[in-house]
């Protein structure tokens, strides 16, 4: 299942660890603090645990949104949508 991971983390080191965790699960960066990719339920739960261990729950946030294909096709991209410096053509062709 597709999953969006969106985070707002104040500490650079923690933010880097969460970013690395997302990459380790094969997610693609679509903006500085937004990743997208395929995760099964076990991977989603494991990533959540890893993120939870990294962040300061008093000031940081991490959202993991599972999304089915039907809903993903209804996503509307407005404005620049993706940070072109971060998103490779692979992401665009994989998901759009």
TrEMBL record:
Enzyme Commission numbers on file: 3.1.-.-
A molecular function GO annotation: hydrolase activity
Pfam families referenced in this protein's UniProt entry, alphabetically: CRISPR_Cas2
Cofactor: Mg(2+)
InterPro entries the record matches: CRISPR_associated_Cas2 (IPR021127), Virulence_VapD/CRISPR_Cas2 (IPR019199)
Keywords: Antiviral defense, Endonuclease, Hydrolase, Magnesium, Metal-binding, Nuclease
Signal peptide (residue range): none
Keyword rRNA-binding recorded: no
Binding site for Mg(2+): 8
GO biological process, one term: maintenance of CRISPR repeat elements
Subunit text: Homodimer, forms a heterotetramer with a Cas1 homodimer.
The protein's role, per its UniProt record: CRISPR (clustered regularly interspaced short palindromic repeat), is an adaptive immune system that provides protection against mobile genetic elements (viruses, transposable elements and conjugative plasmids). CRISPR clusters contain sequences complementary to antecedent mobile elements and target invading nucleic acids. CRISPR clusters are transcribed and processed into CRISPR RNA (crRNA). Functions as a ssRNA-specific endoribonuclease. Involved in the integration of spacer DNA into the CRISPR cassette.
Family to which the UniProt record says this protein belongs: Belongs to the CRISPR-associated endoribonuclease Cas2 protein family.
Protein name from the UniProt record: CRISPR-associated endoribonuclease Cas2
Protein's organism: Methanohalophilus portucalensis FDF-1
Highest classification ranks of the organism: Archaea, Methanobacteriati, Methanobacteriota, Stenosarchaea group, Methanomicrobia
